[in-house]
Amino acid sequence: MNYWLMKSEPDAFSLENLKAKPTSWDGVRNYQARNHMKSMKQGDQVFFYHSSCKDIGIVGIAQVIKESYPDHTAWNPKSDYFDARSSPENPLWYMVDIEFVREFSHTMTLSSLKESPELANMNLLKRGNRLSVMPITEEEWNIITLKSQYL
DNA sequence: GCCAACGTTGGC
DNA sequence: GCCAACGTTGGC
Fold it and tell me: Which of A6, A13, A41, A54 has the fewest CB within 10 Å, making it most exposed?
């Protein structure tokens, strides 16, 4: 099993929304993020991260319930995510399905993550990082889930 | 293949 | 709203 982090702007889609209903993670139009999704396996665990909002940070956990398959929104000219280079015969973009697992009692804020010396090498904390889907090491996963119990 | 211009992300 | 950092595009 592998561990991941996925970012979402809560104004657009929050952990509360995911709690209500599993979702397909469509609209990713970055090759690195796409490749990460393509290597996801069913049951992989995901930190759900709220970005560009008041309370920035990891708010809970989701898991992969369906492995990568073509993102059909790329084929719809009316979609914001339309990309003429992608077709059903030759898909360019992929998505996975995820479901809610649990919510942290308090957000593991970005600033608190930055304060942990043992997390200094996290992709998320690297300067200028903009990737919306990224891998998390097992060690980082364990540190963060443990800390989340003491917030 | 280089690189300038542009658009986007996302913290502050 | 600002702006640094990054990915992508496209001319050459």
Answer: A54
- For residue A128, what pLDDT is reported? 87
Nearest residue to B12, CA vs C1'?
A52
Q: Residue A107 CA to B10 C1' — how many Å?
A: 18
**pLDDT digit string, tens, across residues A87-127:** 999 999 999 999 999 999 999 999 999 999 999 999 999 98
- Domains recognised in chain A with CATH numbers: 3-148 (3.10.590.10)
Which residues have CB under 7 A from strand B?
Answer: A 7, 9, 51-52, 56, 110-111, 129-132
Closest CA to A67 of A95, A102, A33: A95
